[in-house]
Design goal:
4-stranded mixed sheet; alpha/beta; about 25% strand
């Protein structure tokens, strides 16, 4: 299944992945899920959070909402762009430009805030920083992923 707020993105993705016949779900991840039946073993949210408006107090709602769609011990994983101590000056410059253009929303983002909202929602959280990209895996499974 594919979920996004943009119908154009969903349609393009469905076309590219047509051999898998994905179901498309147009939905804002900051709103309560349309379904709450915990039927996903895993959810990938890659390169989304840096486009969501607000700080991680607001963006963190997405993790609460997506968790409602995971089976018990399901895994949420993803990657997002964040200004970090490892970010180059050039990366910080481009993030600032993309923020001003309204494409990104990273100006108030901090890795610590991302970790806090993940840990608020999940018992087992792993975060790895690769320059300006933060990779994360989260689950309630205390034995690992």
């Amino acid at each position: 299944d594919l979920m996004d707020l943009s119908l154009a993105c969903l349609q393009r993705s469905r076309k590219r992945l047509s051999k898998y016949s994905p179901k498309i779900i147009r939905h804002n991840i900051l709103e309560t899920p349309l379904e709450d039946d915990k039927h996903y073993d895993s959810i990938g949210i890659n390169y989304v959070m840096h486009c969501v408006a607000g700080d991680y107090k607001v963006k963190g709602i997405a993790f609460t909402n997506l968790k409602k769609l995971l089976k018990n011990n399901g895994v949420l994983f993803g990657a997002c762009v964040l200004p970090t101590e490892k970010s180059s000056h050039l990366a910080k410059f481009f993030m600032a430009v993309l923020d001003k253009l309204g494409i990104f929303n990273t100006s108030g983002d901090k890795v610590e805030d991302l970790v806090l909202v993940l840990e608020k929602n999940f018992d087992n959280v792993t975060v790895e920083i690769k320059s300006s990209v933060v990779l994360f895996v989260a689950s309630d499974n205390k034995e690992g992923y």
